[in-house]
Design a protein that fits this description.
Distance between the termini: 30 Å
Number of domains: 1
Number of helices: 5
CATH superfamily: Phosphoglycerate mutase-like
Shape: globular
């Protein structure tokens, strides 16, 4: 199975006006554009997720929507409370297990949680740092859910890499 871990795009910094708390912070126009570039790069790589699972926070949901549009994903993305900051990885596994017939899962979340998720999938120690830039994506292949053996890190794409690829 292929797991794609995606950090949300660049969101507004300020909490004021209609934005009352961190949960409600939306993507900036640059954040949306950067997410589109990265998703377009994944499309060129042939990525076709069977299921999209996102944090309930606005910026992650909006990033998920951008990826869904670019990747021509036709189903409704799933909301997973465990992908919110501080969520439980075992609860993410429970959500994913419901869709065991899927081969490609795409998860949208936050830092440092996406790094912890990657570390857990790879059975690595906290010393292995995989810092996710905003709109960054890594692919980790696993045999089962939860993994009964270490996953394999196949690649990691930052927005900067996606921008360079888009130029060529």
């Amino acid at each position: 199975m292929r797991f794609y871990l995606v950090r949300h795009g660049v969101a507004v910094d300020r909490i004021d006006g209609d934005i009352k708390n961190d949960f409600q912070r939306p993507l900036t126009p640059d954040g949306r554009h950067e997410s589109e570039l990265v998703a377009s790069g994944l499309k060129k790589l042939g990525v076709k997720p069977d299921v999209l699972i996102t944090s309930p926070l606005v910026r992650a949901r909006q990033t998920c929507e951008v990826f869904a549009e670019v990747l021509n994903y036709k189903n409704e993305p799933l909301i997973c409370e465990a992908l919110a900051p501080g969520g439980s990885i075992s609860d993410i596994y429970k959500m994913a297990k419901v869709y065991q017939s899927a081969n490609e899962y795409m998860f949208f979340g936050h830092e440092p949680d996406m790094m912890r998720f990657a570390q857990t999938l790879l059975w690595s120690s906290p010393e292995l740092e995989i810092p996710f830039k905003k709109s960054g994506v890594c692919r980790i292949d696993v045999a089962d859910i939860p993994p009964t053996m270490p996953g394999v890190l196949k690649w990691f794409i930052t927005p900067k890499i996606a921008k360079l690829a888009a130029r060529s």
